[in-house]
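The records we work with from here on pair a chain with its fold. Taken together, the tokens spell out the fold as the letters spell out the chain. To see the layout at work, look at the sequence and tokens printed below.
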Amino acid sequence: MSRRIGFYICHCGTNIAGKVRTDEVVHFARTLKDVTVARDYKFMCSDPGQEMIQKDIRELGLNRVVVASCSPRLHEKTFQSACQRAGLNPYLFQMACVREHCSWVTEDVAEATHKAKTLAAAAIQRVGYHQRLHAREAKVHPDVLVVGAGIAGIQASLDIARADHRVYLVERHPSIGGHMVQFDKTFPTLDCAACISTPKTVAISQEKNIELFTLSEVTDVSGFVGNYTVTIRRRARYVMEDRCTGCGLCAEACPVEVPNEFDELLGMRKAAYRFFPQAVPITFAVDKKDRAPCVTTCPAGINVQGYVQLIGQG
């Protein structure tokens, strides 16, 4: 079937017509291949503007439509709906942005007009390759993954969980809270940071619809919107989480000190540690990399692997 393209350029009051000679763009469009009709109008998004498009689709048998106007983010759906009401598949529509990309950013009228012609020609050429598409329904998995358990991730998780959706909250540190738990006061009202964050972190631990993954990072995401498969790499705490009571005896027994990340490396902490006193979860962790820190830092070179085993049993 031969293409019958309708081209329309909007004045947008003086937003476009003040810099672009729209009548000249219309005459140019009429010379392009497959263009059946080309018109300009002061406000294409208005009811009369939409009715103009619909009338031409019905009476002239248009099977493609191009509108040169403002941003597609603003009115693409408007014009697609107008096409659909006239019986044209909405995906046989193309929009050229000659306001934000042309008239608003080009001072010279001749230059703006030339650019508008170029954008119009590109849109007319492109719409010829459009195919009919049809919306379809797909089942969406209702569970939600939230990456990052700072104050924003915490609040998002609580809101979603309280709407009765399952939430998987992933945090790379041993505890949730993000930077806010490191602050004494918050800007601009100088409210107590802990007074805001602590009730929310506790609520996370008590919310039945939230599954918390600490010391974890997302390593792979596959699938499509509403049906993702996510791989999470979870680092070991070297502490039995179901048995740790957070008593801190393991930290007292630990002979090794390392720089404390929570204090921005200004202080020291034990290799067996809790991220900060009000941490959620309260479970301790052992900082073990390639070799146990108590082995690598021992000045006498003594293999004290037994200490690590003792700490590991919490």
Summary: Confidence is low (pLDDT under 50) at residues 297-314. The first helix runs from residue 22 to 30. The two ends are 76 Å apart (CA to CA).
